[in-house]
Amino acid sequence: MTHSNNLIPTLKKHFGFDSFRNQQEEIINAVLDQKDCLVIMPTGGGKSICFQLPALMFKGITLVISPLIALMKDQVDGLRANGIEADYFNSSQTADEQQHILEKVATAKLKLLYVAPESLGALENILNEKYISCVAIDEAHCISSWGHDFRPSYQQLSFLKKALTNTPIIALTATADKATRQDIMEQLQIPNAKQFITSFDRKNIRLEVRPANDRVNQIIDFIAQRPNQSGIIYCLSRKSTEQLKERLQSKGIDAQAYHAGLNFQERTKVQEDFIFDKTQVVCATVAFGMGIDKSNVRWVIHYNMPKNLEGYYQEIGRAGRDGTKAKALLFHSYADVLQLRRFIDGASNEQLQIAKLERMKQFSEATSCRRKILLSYFGELLATNCGNCDVCKNPPQFFNGTVIAQKALSVITRLRQGESMGVIIDVLRGAKNATTLEKQYYQLPSYGIGNDISWKDWQHYIIQLIDQGYCEIAFHKHNALQLTHFSKEVLFNGQEVQMTKPVDRSEKLEEKQEKTKKSKKTNTLFERLRLLRLKISLEENIPAYLIFSDATLKEIEAERPMSETEFLRISGVGERKMDVYGYEFIAEVKTFMTEKKKKRKSSDTVKLTYEMYKQGMSIEAIAEARDIKAPTVFSHLSKLYSEGKDIDMCQFVTKAEVSLVKKAKKELNSPEGLKPYFEYFKEELEYSKIRLALTILEKENR
């Protein structure tokens, strides 16, 4: 059965969209037809609408199982902002609050009720088909031990299908491989669920990976290029989140740390300040993020390499949820791989985790399109390169690195395959430190044979040798590097080894910063709309992105709607948001356009004065021809001179007069306006000459 006649009007009225994305319409129709569904859709792909819209059309309530209180609150706030009756039920509420919610369910005053799996027992009296029309299980990968965020409390959800036999269950997640998908359906007892697997490709997110050299300064530069943009930096440890936060704060960056070592109140405050745009940057462990539905996160940085591609994909998905441009930057290092291997050591599923870490490492060190690698991991193949990752935009330059490879492999041999990468590089470079001196490595024939290559570059080359299989890390032997059967071909048979040169990012970074500096504009319509949105969000105590997303603001900036009808055509503007917020935003657009018109008019009139001046007309002739006063003409010439136009100021003010004004400026301590100067000269030096002299002095100072 199709329900299309009602779907689009409902979508526009409550959510402000004129059409569906991906497979949303098919999924909604399946749910309305009482069918169980498993939905795999990327973060920001529109999963929530797949159960929120049907909830408006069902007679009873839709019960939403959600893993975090913060996530429930965020979704409920968003629904209420759209004029939809929704609430959440969890352990943070008093008994009276919980009873009030149950009464709303009994009297059919709610359309959606969010609950954590741990709180389901308290809803026993309403868990029947008299009240429940649909069950949505969000973040469904948590139910599976094959998933990357396994939560045992999710496994109790198998009883739902028994209690609600004829009620459709829709399970949703952003990341689930084939094994995890099968496990989800078995655990929830929905083996015949209709599967919807949309594209994993988040085209709006630009992927970039960099070596972790001097990463703190790289991050500081990165943030400096993106003022007013919200971002998350993921770190492996609590200690590194705190240290990084302090470094960023010392550079004037509004940053906070988030990790499990903080108490509940501290974590809640950091999260809410970030959601409400009061904090720009959060340095966090992976404990942060699942509860963040913030659509205007513009970038995500991984300070350390994640342990698997599922986690990486889930975390970068928190950027650009509104569909506008976003950036994912990953720093990787040899040390990260070693640390993650230590974490895995002894785990019950050690071999599985090692395999997943290896795929993550391959992604980080790739020399081909990163998006192809990422999507292929989830079973999706790209026919062409993405054009929006660092490898596609700056393809690596290969060279014959056979001699470099032979030197490194020779040292590994001389050290009897018993030393880690750091010691090998020290021997290659002829370092005189405790290890090389105590173990008498300085006596080896190959000691110092690579002293013409920097330590950092040697690390880059040896990692490539590991990646290409010419040597390997013996994790069980203190991370010693050992030869493989491929090594002999290079050492003794001259097999050619292709390598890439290290990328020097400092020069590119400076060019980018200069470009950003020149192009940065603060008085754009988007910036003014953003500030208006922030003002309203603080007044109403709801996150700014719940008023309008960045994507909606950008469309308002592009379309510049001046009426209610025009404003309602903007994607993301529904009837309620038009009534509550629309008129203020229309007024801001009108004000901006009026100011722009005046500015353009002013610019045009100054331009006309310049054209007449270049034709050789005198001040008096320009004033008479344009029906303006001579002081106005002088003010135009002053502006034109400041902008670098070819104006001969000596025609209008002498060097002696400029010197007198310079002296007056010093004695008067740079006063505001022209009147103090006029009075200083006892009204004997004309206003126009004072203005022109000050313009000359200002330009000299610049």
From TrEMBL:
Residues 28-194 form the Helicase ATP-binding domain. Its EC number is 5.6.2.4. Pfam families: DEAD, Helicase_C, HRDC, HTH_40, RecQ_Zn_bind, RQC. Keywords: ATP-binding, DNA damage, DNA recombination, DNA repair, DNA-binding, Helicase, Hydrolase, Isomerase, Metal-binding, Nucleotide-binding, Zinc. Residues 215-363 form the Helicase C-terminal domain. Coiled coil: none annotated. InterPro entries: DEAD/DEAH_box_helicase_dom, DNA_helicase_ATP-dep_RecQ, DNA_helicase_ATP-dep_RecQ_bac, Helicase_ATP-bd, Helicase_C-like, Helicase_HTH, HRDC-like_sf, HRDC_dom. PROSITE patterns: HELICASE_ATP_BIND_1, HELICASE_CTER, HRDC. Its cofactor is Mg(2+); Zn(2+). One of its GO terms (molecular function) is helicase activity. SMART domains: DEXDc, HELICc, HRDC, RQC. Residues 519-599 form the HRDC domain. Belongs to the helicase family. RecQ subfamily. This is DNA helicase RecQ. It comes from Sediminicola arcticus.
